[in-house]
Recover the amino acids of this structure.
């Protein structure tokens, strides 16, 4: 079973998924720290309507630097643009 996976492109976290059975066990945090520390990821977008994810990213040192009314596909899902600022 895959516990989680991460995708990065040009310094931006494009995807971070953790299997529900593994949530709350540090998998996401380890993946995101690896992305920042080893792969130089400094930016990401998160669905504004997912407060759990927003809080997770804030807890790991990201802060909101902007907002879009629509997602990358033009659908009405507001996104928060976040940048890593450290702890």
């Amino acid at each position: 079973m895959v516990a989680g996976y991460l995708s990065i492109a040009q310094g931006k976290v494009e995807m971070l998924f953790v299997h529900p059975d593994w949530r709350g066990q540090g998998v996401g945090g380890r993946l995101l720290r690896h992305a920042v520390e080893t792969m130089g990821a400094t930016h990401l977008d998160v669905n504004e309507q997912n407060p759990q994810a927003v809080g997770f990213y804030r807890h790991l040192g990201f802060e909101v630097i902007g907002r879009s009314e629509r997602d990358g596909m033009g659908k009405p899902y507001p996104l928060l643009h976040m940048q890593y600022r450290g702890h």
The longest strand covers residues 12-18.
